[in-house]
Amino acid sequence: MSLSRINATAATLTKNRTDGSIVPTSGMCVTCVDGCIGMCEIGKSAYRGHEVIYPQPFGVVTTAGEKSYPVDYSHFNIMGTAVGAHGIEADSDKAIFPKVGLEVAFGHDGGIKFRYPWIIPGIGSTDIAKNNWEGLAIGSALAGTGLTIGENVVGMDTEAVINGGRVVDTVDLKRRVNLYKEHQRNRYGAIIVQSNVEDTRLGVQEYAIEKLGVDCVELKWGQGAKDIGGEVKIKSLKKAQMLYARGYVVLPDPTDEHIIKAFERGAFKEFERHSRVGMVTEESFGRRVEELRRAGAKYIFLKTGAYRPADLARAVAFCSKYKLDLLTVDGAGGGTGMSPWRMMNEWGVPPVELHSMLYYYLKRLADKKKYIPAVAVAGGFVFEDQIFKGLAMGAPFVKLVGMARAPIAAAMVGKTIGMSIEQEDLPVYVERFGNTKEEIFVTATDLRNELGVEEFERVPTGALGLYTYYERLAQGLRQLMAGSRKFSPEYISRDDIAALTPEAAAISGIRHVMDVDKEEVDSILKIAE
To answer: Where are the domains of the chain?
Structure first.
């Protein structure tokens, strides 16, 4: 059975002519007919070429690969128990799930505090991020969790002021940072500014530290969706020329007179802006970390993607040696912007395998008493059961789970509901809960009491959507943790999950369900023998 879907997918707005008879190796129709207009990906590529590399329609969708991996987090189950409690007195009247604590603190001095053990990794310059930033920033800040401003935000800002190749003022980055900071409560959470090759050249992080008061910055080696730099599509010739002048790779060349004429007559509709690939060395890494510390960064993170094992080892080793505060490791298959579709499906190390290797590498250093940074894992996490499994897989090193597509979805739904309320056009399956945001969003009443009526009224429904989604995750996670008798994330361990297949057990080092508690079972049964 093929693990991949090939040649026809909603991501590229393509489909097969025949629904049932598909060649599994190629994805082609068994009978490819002369005269077909070309509905499949091969056919569409015959007239739109490189445009079909990317998920469509760009700017209004997030995307994730369709490949079904041999092992994923569903191949593990959470183990509950009927005895004891960790982190609370073993008393039925006290060990109730609302008492489960979810707060985490990390950083070299423990100075970063999150109310929940998750974070939104880098969401950068794509339209889908920019158009939903209000909900993402305010919702994250109110919830007390982390949010990362991804790559290329300054470079894409048409109103940014750049002198001598360095940024001196911005509109978009300033807006993104301030939206978060203005709604942050009791110093919970963090706004993080990420940097790629172009951002580093522009001095984005130095600007964020000095001018915007940002404490946390993140170096970026990659992500789970692709092993090349970030891409976006540009519909404006003027903007494409601006980006070209700022040093980006822009295709086709927006300064070529023949290309300009072709664009103006409608031969093609959009340009592509590409970032460069980084060239990692220990020397340059260490130098950059020192530069950021001199610039005033209080906390420095690294995000890496689904690269080969040697690169993961480099990330672990460099973060340990240079004492970074957080390492985020993103497994293959995700994507929030415009990653090449086939790359998203066929490139990189899948999450379970990557996170298992991560645990082995961290444990090797920990056993030698080396510095271990806090760690976040990412790659398709959506609900509380997956969050629990991600924390357990990497325990005791993994402190956070990274999620992007799911929070964006929650913010988008919240925003859409708000627009529907204003237009008095709520769909029936929402209207049955009411026709105001206080009636529809289940967290609204409590949040209004906490914030006060005036401040609550300034909270957009996109933020309410994210905040309410997080509230669901928190309650669900508390229930799972209480069932495992773990009343704080620090008590979650690898033996809180069991592998359901021999292959999952072999890859992860997590015991197969038939072997869980084997020694304890033997000693218990001896009581009755």
So the answer is: 10-53, 231-274, 493-525
